[in-house]
Fold:
Amino acid sequence: MISRRFFLGTTTAALASSATTSATRFTELETRLARHDLKDIHKEDLPTPCMVVDQDIFDANLKKMSAHCAKTGIHLRAHVKVHKSEEIAKRQMALGAIGITCATVAECELVSHAGIHGILLTRQPASKNNIGRVIALAKRDPTFGTVVDDPIVADWLQQAAAAENVKLRTVVDVYAGLTRHGIQREQALDLAKQVDSAKNLKFAGFMGYAGYAAHTHGWNQRLKKSQDDMAGTLEAVASARAAGLPVEIVSGGSTGTYNVDSEYTGLTELQAGSYVFMDTLYKVIGGKDDTPTYNDFGMSLTVLTTVISNRHAGRCTIDAGNKALLKPTDEVKGRPEVKVENAGAEYGALVWKDGDRDFKLGDRVEVYPSNLDMSTNVYDRYYVTRGEQVVDVWPIMGRAGAPQR
Structure:
C-alpha cells in the first residue's frame, strides 16, 4: 500500500535515504492501476488534482434516470460529451439507453470503435473533413446518424453519401432558443422534405435542444421555458407528419428538464448527460417541489486536491488552479461555507471565516466542479471509489499521458 501516512510517518532522514524506494512505489502505483490491481489503493494514494467518482451515488443516478424513462416511455440517448467514457456509455446502454449523442465527430468515432450503436451527432458537419468522417461512420454502422440545419449541408451530405453508396440517417435540427444552431420552424418542413427525397439520406426525425431551459431556475419556470423554446420543433413535427413524412424520433431535453419534458407530449427521447455526475450550476436550479436545491440526482463527481500551503489565517492553497478548471462557483465537499478562489495556473485558494475549522497542510480536499463538460476535458481518467477505497479506473476517451495535468 502506498499512502500519505507512510510519508508523514517517516523521518526526514529516512525519506532522504529512501528516495529511490519512494520513486519505485509511485511507479508501482501506475503499474498496478494499469493491470487493475486495486487492492489497498485509497484516495490518499492518488496524484492530485484528479477526478474521483463516488460509485454508489453514480450508480443511483443511472438507475434513477433509467427508471424515469421506463415509467414515462421516453427513451434515453444519453450525451457522451459530459463524461467521454466508454465505460459509462456501456453502463447507460445496459440500463436501457437506446444510444448515445455526441457533440463532435471525434467523440462519435471513439464511441463507435468501442462497439456502441445508436450514435447521433448533434452538431451539423460542414467541413470536407467532418463530412467524410461522418460518411465513414455511416458505412461502418447503419444506426449512426447526424443532424442538419441547412439545405446546403444536406446537399453536401447527399453527394458524399452517394459517392460511397451509403444511406445516412439524418435528423433535422430545429431552432429551440439557442442561436448557435437550428433551422427556423417556418423552413424546417422544406428541409425535412429535401432530406426525405434525397436518395442517400434517410430522414429520421427532428431535434430541438432547449439549452437555456435546462438551467432556468424554478421547475414551473423551466416547464414554461422548455414549452416556449420547443414549440417550433413540435410544430415542425406536426407539419411533417401531416405531410406524410416518417418522423421516427423527436430528440432533445436535458438533465435540467428531464421531468419537465415528460409533462407534455412531443419528445420521444432525452439527450440528458449531466445527471451521471451533476455539478454546482445544476444544483441551484431548484427542484419540482419548490426546493431551492436540485436534488433529483446526487453529486457523484469531485476533483481531489491537496492543501499545499497554509501560511495565512482563514485561507489555504490547494494544487488545483486555472489549468484544473477551478472556478469560484465550485464547492468544497462537506464544507459549504468555504469559498473557492482562483490563485493562478496551478494554484487555487480556499477561504473561510471559522478559525476552529482550519485546513491542515497535506489535507486532501474534494471540490465539486461547476462545469462537467470542461472539467472532463482536462483530465485523463476517473478514479472510482467506495468510501476511501479505489475500486475502478475509467479512462477518458481521446486523452493520454500523465494521470494529472
Summary: Residues 1-19, 401-405 have pLDDT under 50 and may be disordered.
